Amino acid sequence: MEPNTTQTAAGWREKIDLPEWGIRRVRAKLDTGARSSAIDVAQYEIIDDQRVRFEIVYRDRPTRKTKWIETQYSRMTNVKPSSGEPQSRVMCKTTFRIGDQEFESEIGLVCRKGMLCRMLIGRSALADRFVVDSSRKYIVSPKVLRSKGMD
After folding, report:
1. I need a labelling partner for 142 at 20 to 30 A (CA). Which of 13, 23, 27, 107 fits?
2. What's the confidence (pLDDT) of residue 149?
3. 93-97, long-range: CB within 8 Å, 24+ apart, which pairs?
């Protein structure tokens, strides 16, 4: 079988932008073992049968940074996470930007407190776009080095 030459190599960790929500450079784990994508939310509320309001935690260290978003949700679904206990999740569609690629995909709202990465990008979002090199990080989104004390 011929490899898809339109796919871009990406590291197992990359910085992701969510431009529709005004969020930049969220640390994300690219996980081919997960089907769906997820983002860390501290809390959410379903407003009505079409809209949800939630607080995204887009940075936890060195300083916690959050942002409230209100948007339409695409569906509720049951997910079996790595813990093995099924969970009901709110799924929203938004634009992802990884490197120079921009595309729409679904993302689940979930508490990822204690996880290294605020986002998890699953194979549904990665398919036909990226090949993940599990030995490397920040291939398409170079890590920006900051001076101590700067944000």
Report:
1. 107
2. 47
3. 94/18, 94/20, 94/21, 95/18, 95/19, 95/20, 96/16, 96/17, 96/18, 96/37, 96/121, 96/125, 97/16, 97/17, 97/18, 97/19
Domains and CATH numbers, the chain: 8-38+74-133 (2.40.70.10)
Q: How confident is the model at residue 81 (pLDDT cuts 50, 70, 90)?
A: confident
pTM over 0.90: no
Name beta bridge partners: 88. Answer: 78
Provide DSSP, 44-97: EEE-SSSEEEEEEEEE-SSS-EEEEEEEE--EEEEE--TTS--EEEEEEEEEEE
Confidence of residue 151 (pLDDT cuts 50, 70, 90): very low
Among all chains, which residue has been given the structure tokens 């995909």? Answer: 105
pLDDT in tens, 13-31: 999 999 999 999 999 999 9
Backbone angle region of 147, left / alpha / beta, with phi > 0 → left and psi within -120 to 50 → alpha: beta
